[in-house]
Amino acid sequence: MTGVVGFDPASSGQLPVDDMGNPISVGVWGDSSVGVGVFGTTGVPTANLGNISIIGPAGVIGHGLGDPGVWGECIQGSGVIGRSQSGDGVLGVTFSATDDSAGVFGTSVVGGNGVVGFVGDAAGVIGNSIRGTGVEGITGTGNGVVGESFGLDGSPPAAGVLGRSDTFGVRGISGPGNGVLGESQTGAGVKGVSTQEAGVRGLSTSSNGILGLTFGAASGVSGFQFSSEDGSGIFGESVVGTGVDGFSFGGIGVRGQGRDYAGMFLGGVLITGSLSKGGGGFAIDHPLDPETKYLRHSFVESPDMLNVYNGNITTDAKGEAHVRLPHYFEALNQEFRYQLTVIGKFAQAIVSREIVDNGFSIKTDQPQVKVSWQVTGIRRDPWASANRIAVEEEKAAEDKGRYLHPELRGQSMEAQIHRSQQHETQLRRVSQLAPERLREQIQRHMEARSRGDRVDGAELQRLVGEAKRLAERHHRDESPRIDHSRLQQKWQRVQELVQRMSTR
Hints:
Shape: elongated
Number of helices: 6
Largest sheet: 3 strands, antiparallel
Helix content: 10-25%
Distance between the termini: 36 Å
């Protein structure tokens, strides 16, 4: 039964019932077909306050001059429930311009959540803003925004936090904690998608812009460029520091692998340690035809750390000559070797005195003989002495039966030493990213390319280009869109409502 009942001007004919349709008792029942069902005020009015202007019909209106207009309290359930068939369940508006006010404010003092939004198949919380931030999370020590999605009832998990904007989709600010924290059991913790700008942008004023950490057999940061256009899997650029810095405690600092070149350096290269290679040489524009040809020469190689010095000298009237070597020669070299060649006449030449005080002497059996000389020495500086090259070396146990270049011995690339441990993972990633009907074709081409087989480059470019177009089309079809016109209309309705509130 009802403690207090009031109808104005007439009863609507509705009865208070529970979810099963059974009648329930209420403390106060107010029913109005044209105005407000229940109206209550609190607080001491000031002089010339005037009447309270009601902006429209409402079931309950509470007006507070200093205390809450409506207070809802419950021991176990919800303090206040707002329900609407077609509008907003709860609408909160504030006229304060200070940062410590809010349209809706939720707080918890014992460890619960300040505001929780829950819904069946739509968004739990949606933040819309015409000019500002849709959702802003600020914290002193914890997480600015936490979003979790688990995919209940066997459905695939959606995004923990989904932000779509013409500028920043999601922006999180935190003092010592996390601005945005994304966690996922099987998918991506944080996924950023953009058609023109960066998918994910990380900015720090004193630390790393982006930090990637993994405890599995994967990469801390992995970049995959999947396009028929030129681009990079990972691009690093620095104004005054290092563009890309690689460091490993027990492995390889930077690893590059490619069909044509594992690495390309447009500028000088500094190596402070040893350099090991299968071969090498120089390539320059051809001196006689620089516009259409290259000229290539191979390096001179030796099992020793060999230095070579050479020159020409002519003996005097006594058939004698003294060759001066660089002042650092004996400090740098040891185990000297000599070669002499007589030029212009038949004569004999010998080394009459070996190297002493960075020089040696030549003697010919005739006067005025031109001699071409060459001297070699093996490095003996501290670094060379500590890093002698092992001319013959046993392969490690795990590398025996494998080769640096297995394709040259009729073997498959599976027998390659230093083969990337992530090769199969990379191929699987391509299969996951590519549209289903193109996966097998792209994977077949990439496997052939990784084996060193010749592939149809134009066909591979065509497949990758088609995959890109299909992926972009899928993103447009599947991604939720922002209806700017509808958002603008809703904002105008809110402004009209706020204007009516402010003029009362």
